[in-house]
Amino acid sequence: DKANYRHFMAKEIHEQPEVVGHTLARYLDMASERIALPMKLPFDFKDVQHLSITACGTANYAGYVAKYWFEQFARLPVEIDIASEFRYREAPLRSGDLAIFISQSGETADTLAALRYAKEQGLHTLSVVNVPTSTIARESEVVMPTLAGPEIGVASTKAFTCQLTALAALAIAAGRARGTLTDADEAKLVHGLIELPRLMAAALTHEPQIERLARDISKAQDVLYLGRGTSYPLALEGALKLKEISYIHAEGYAAGELKHGPIALIDEKMPVVVIAPYDRVFEKTVSNMQEVAARGGRIILMTDAKGAEEATVDSMVTIMMPDMPAAFTPMVYAIPVQLLAYHTAVVMGTDVDQPRNLAKSVTVE
Ligand code: M6R
């Protein structure tokens, strides 16, 4: 049931503060501000030398964000793969290492085949799934359910932010086990996670501005999304979301790659969505924005108060996100990214919940 929303997608976007709260409650202890995984791990993170993360589509982008977390918090080398590539490319895998699979439906054919392949190679398998009775959940050694509730819209929204939440908890647990995070680091990170529902709710208040912006975007032929660090996979996700429901061509790029090709596309007609919380790499992203502005590109900047103050670039719409610690910005910035795709699709008059040619769960390869 869509409650009072026009589409399931809108309802699911708005449910995010609540369902992320549910996922948090499953994986951490709010009172002590520590990670408290409810399941026993059949491996020790200290013995894991290499982590592979495999998924498709939006779930793959959640994994891509998590790569940054596992590397930073647990100093664990991570390879992120698209399931259809992982299963055929004969990557050298080490038995005893860990492979993580991420899937909303738990039925995606390529992800399931990749899981079976990893098992055959003697890897430990852990899946982050939204449907706990699914095949991927059943066949994995360890399951971390995301408590997003049923996701009906073909475009994945709340499953994505819940996947990120579960993966963040696991990356912190890995850091603790490997001795790369102190108790104080853990407490700080967990505190950041606990703040997420409130910050996501704050992000949702920008919907009217994004709705107005969507009228503009709906006239574009192509849209470019840029980000650095964890905002890079979010840029990929933004472009996927826009193309799958509005049918407007979009591309996500690491901001630093701009000069290596995509800058040739930029003219006055090209909206460029820049996802740039004020973080370690912010200044670098500002110089990329200047390159876009110098070529007449129209910049839509998603940032916070400090970022807005520091980004002195013309021709810009700024979508102001709340101030927050850098680690978990993807969960909060996902909201304007999703809303922009959603409202653009509504303006275009497409079938938002059932976009053409797509299925909610891709059970054939
Ligand atoms: O059910 P899964 O998470 O395994 O699905 C993976 C992709 O098919 C899915 O994320 C797809 O990319 C969505 N339509 C994106 O919105």
UniProtKB/TrEMBL annotation:
Whether Ion transport counts among this entry's keywords is no
Q: Where in the cell is it found?
A: Cytoplasm
What Gene Ontology biological process does one annotation of this record name? UDP-N-acetylglucosamine metabolic process
Location of the SIS domain: 41-180, 213-355
Q: What is its EC number?
A: 2.6.1.16
What general EC class does the enzyme of this chain belong to? transferase
**Where does the record place the catalytic residues?**
K360
* Record field: catalytic activity: D-fructose 6-phosphate + L-glutamine = D-glucosamine 6-phosphate + L-glutamate
Relate the assembly described in the record.
Homodimer.
Sum up the protein's function in the record's words.
Answer: Catalyzes the first step in hexosamine metabolism, converting fructose-6P into glucosamine-6P using glutamine as a nitrogen source.
The molecule here is called: Glutamine--fructose-6-phosphate aminotransferase [isomerizing]
Species lineage: Bacteria, Pseudomonadati, Pseudomonadota, Alphaproteobacteria, Hyphomicrobiales
* Gene name per UniProt: glmS
Entire protein: which part is shown? 244 to 608 of 608
